[in-house]
């Protein structure tokens, strides 16, 4: 019965060839260090799922943001878990991205033919940092407010256009409702789009070229 | 020679992988469902006696409209809501408190004293003095509140 | 990497793949295991640590120490090493270089070698960057103070930010001699500043005044005292104590256990002055209230020059001596003065003599003595005025200036008193003594409505009242009173009238009670009438609606006949009806007698339960006695033991025996030596009762 449905679907979708290309492909024997990339992917998925769930209740305005976060944490069933997973997932994301990158550097994996994979990886790192920066204004608590005040202020040191950058980031001279709204927009629309596009490319290259083997002493 | 063993090992690994995937899926899925439906399953707030006003304001034999404000907590917002309740008494001792919300689609009914009827302007429904459906589509009589009298004041149970 | 190397690599990789395993399930299984572990770890973190949520964002909280998320700490720390103009290096140059280095890695390192032992440079640079980031992060965690401590910080700055900064900005400068306490308390109706007395406590207002007047002092307070003290707790303490604490350093009793420096070595004289100006703001009204009113009452009568007053205050009792009057006066005159001081039935001539000779120093506060001979002796021989502290040694020059200028102003009376005076001269004729209104003298058919009801005062703001008084109400026969409209009063005087009228708001003299119940039978005795009828409005103790019947002023200003008339005829506009229609003259006469007795039995109401030293008795001592006795006299009121055992004539208190306790005698004026205490005159009767009861109860330390 199951195989009949599978056949029926395969005739129309051709999923078996996709399955074979992605999952049944042969790759060199590697050690546990090579799970760092997929671990990062897992945490990214975790952030997406919990992030989407958080937006069900979260309101990005200064008069409601804090209350809605409090509501999520204290009132909604499993709200503490969803928010906790998202919060700690953010830290895990940074840790895993950096560890993944260090592994690539130490094993020389960025070399031919995987240069493009590396470039997209560096962009992905910057995006992850962007997630962290825009994300922690959103609860609108003391830490959020002041750390973002300082964070945006730091950008204004840029010679020449610093003040302009500051105003663009904050949407005005001060941290305000406008800042919160645009940080929210960037955090849930702009960065996720970029993340999906770039990680799509990153994964395509990984599958297409294959993961590298452990280099021997002579390689 | 080890072919069979190898196949066993791989099918075991495959199953284990699916099992772990299922575990993680449940780890996300169950809390997510609870998280999504939680506000809907929340019990109505504890009901409390709401003061309507003085008993002496109720006219004998005519539904009298009382308006009162109650605070309602929805999500993270507390707002004041106006509650309109018709109170009817035939003898000055036994009171009936009726909601002014039409049981059909939730429009507000009003008392038309000429016709001795509650009238709902949305679909021309009519209710009798005591709230029974007289005409139109409503499925049941007007909702009633539990009512009590204390020190000359009327209270209804609501929240 | 040349073409051959590329080919070699691809060939080698192909071989490795062939020897390798399928992605599913071999590799995917490992990934799944790792993912599960990460999921469990994250869920555990969420469960055990939760996601932190601090207080709601508060942009006016200037004390919060911002600290970024841990993965930005290294960047935050980096900034500390690049101060000023170099900041751009830490913020822009280094991070940009690091990113560019990462990005160009495949371009920089193009050799075919992959093993780390063949690539020392890349591994080296990466390791240095990584270790640097870890080091900076650890450094940052070690150096950043925990935010909670700093968060508590500075309530006064927060108070300012919350209440004042939105209009006044981060800082106000006020001209010298400004009576800030008054301004903050009453607000300013021209400037649109609200009266803060409703929202802030007196201590908070004082602390704010100090904050505005001496910002430097506020800084010094935070850095030196803030760790142990709250501002609000210190602003209400006596300047003598504060000065002593500053001068004595660790020898100051309360500081003796503490490891603190000698403030006179650590802080310059100027800084100490700033600090005192912050804690005891140069605000005359408050200084007077704290320092002077215990002896001098609400104001002193003083008519001399300002400079003279300044030297009087700053030199205090040291140089202020009462002349031996026997050299100047006849024996008869001495007798007259002693009579005036020691007994209540002095003649008008005696009073005249006193006001000629004595009141320039003593004001209206007559030193009381019960014994005629003692009084005569004291007047005849004169003597040093020992009780007044040498304020010049205690107060800063700013405080002294403020105190002097306030005293000069206040010697004309407080605004309230001045207002009452002006009101009674100009307004009371038509509006009645307390605004109850009555028949309009200009138009006998009209009745003037009360202007002292809560409703009247609530519905008119100060500006409207000012307009009414200044321009008059020609339609109702009220002539303009403002000098601008040809009337007798200037703007200040009108404002004092308004101040006086506002004082009615607390206890409106005219108020319509809801309903009055009359008994069927009014054939009652005076006491019964008062209890059943009068007290419905006036309360059993006479403190209800209308004038406070037990108030000495009320008793003094109204003759029996006047009180009789008021009861019998009523006030046409208040609910005080003409009782002659209901009561007989005889009953009204009884009521007058009862009213006269009201101020005598007020004391019975106050005491309930045994007095506690800490809660009831010590506050009285602190309010009335320690202003002089704390630092100067030998007597000390901080513990019950000291109350009993210290003092030049110790024991001051004989527990259980109030009659023979020196303290009680002094307080009641029955002492055998020295003057009555406090010198301003007897304490209120209920206060005396509390202290006496406490002594009788054995002077417990409770």
SSE string of chain A, helix = H, strand = E?
HHEHHHHHHH
Strand order of the largest sheet of chain C: 2-3
- Give average pLDDT of chain A, whole number: 92
Give the class-level CATH name of chain A. Answer: Mainly Alpha
Provide mean pLDDT of chain C, rounded.
75
Are there runs of chain C of 5+ residues with pLDDT below 50, and where? 147-152, 601-608
Please summarize the sheet with the most strands of chain A: none
Rounded radius of gyration of chain C (Å): 39 Å
Name the beta content range of chain A: under 5%
Quantity of strands of chain C, as a count: 5
CATH architecture of chain A: Up-down Bundle
Share of residues in strands of chain C: under 5%
Which percent bin holds the helix content of chain C? 40-55%
CATH names the topology of chain A as Cytochrome Bc1 Complex, Chain C
Organism (chain C): Candidatus Desulfolinea nitratireducens
Protein name (chain C): C-type cytochrome
Membrane topology (chain C): Multi-pass membrane protein
GO molecular function (chain C): electron transfer activity; heme binding; metal ion binding; oxidoreductase activity
Provide a compact summary of the structure.
The complex is a heterotrimer of chains A (219), B (159) and C (702). Chain A has 219 residues and is mainly alpha-helical.
What does this protein look like?
The complex is a heterotrimer of chains A (219), B (159) and C (702). With 219 residues, chain A is an all-alpha fold. Chain A has nine helices and one strand. Chain A has a single domain (32-209), classed as Up-down Bundle (Cytochrome Bc1 Complex, Chain C). Chain A is 71% helix and 1% strand. The model of chain A has no long low-confidence stretch (mean pLDDT 92). Chain B is an alpha+beta fold. In chain C, a hairpin with a 7-residue loop joins strand 4 and strand 5 (447-448). In chain C, helix 10 (180-186) crosses helix 11 (202-213) and helix 12 (215-225) crosses helix 16. Chain B binds chain C through residues 10, 13-14, 16-17, 20-21, 23-24, 27, and chain C through 22, 24-26, 28-29, 32-33, 35-36, 39, 43.
